[in-house]
Design goal:
By secondary structure, the protein is of the alpha+beta class. The chain contains three helices and seven strands, in the order E-E-E-E-H-E-E-E-H-H. Strands 4-3-2-1-5-6-7 form a seven-stranded antiparallel beta sheet, with helices on one face. Strand 3 and strand 4 (58-63) form a beta hairpin. The chain starts with 11 loop residues before the first strand and ends with a helix.
Length: 159
């Protein structure tokens, strides 16, 4: 969990706006997402994720805008809005910082780094990228911290 965008000297690689919702929030998780890089075209993704916290298997399939809209109507709840900014860290990793549901009482910020292996994920030290102060609260292994669980807490339990 983080507070705001990083105020560090890192190259900004991309800015994306996303809308996502869940057809199934328990493993296997089934999510739809509209992704649009600033200045780019939108893409629509159906994603199925295995269970797990640090390591999960994901299968993503591109779908059409019409299919996305049909699935969004089936969900029948407001989708989660996210802005993601991707930065290049000093040690060459990609830091993805997300601002979720801006302006809502439940809004929050989180950051993640994708790794090629579990060993590299467990061995990565944010201090090596001068990110120790920014990435202070690691919630990876804590229950209730996934986006699917946020969906349940903020959409399904209120429906």
């Amino acid at each position: 969990m983080v507070k705001g965008w990083p105020e560090l000297d890192m190259p900004l690689l991309a800015v994306e706006n996303m809308r996502q919702g869940y057809l199934h929030a328990d493993a296997p998780v089934v999510r739809i997402r509209r992704e649009e890089k600033v200045g780019g075209d939108a893409r629509f993704v159906l994603c199925i994720k295995s269970g797990g916290r640090l390591v999960r298997h994901e299968v993503e399939t591109l779908i059409g805008a019409d299919q996305f809209e049909e699935l969004e109507q089936m969900i029948g709840l407001p989708l989660i809005e996210k802005e993601r900014r991707t930065y290049l860290t000093r040690d060459g990793m990609h830091l993805e910082v997300n601002h979720v549901d801006a302006g809502l009482p439940s809004e929050f910020w989180y950051a993640e780094v994708e790794y090629p292996s579990e060993e590299e994920a467990r061995g990565w030290d944010p201090a090596n990228a001068d990110l120790a102060a920014y990435l202070g609260e690691d919630v990876t292994d804590l229950p209730g911290q996934s986006m699917a669980e946020y969906w349940v807490q903020t959409r399904l339990q209120k429906a």
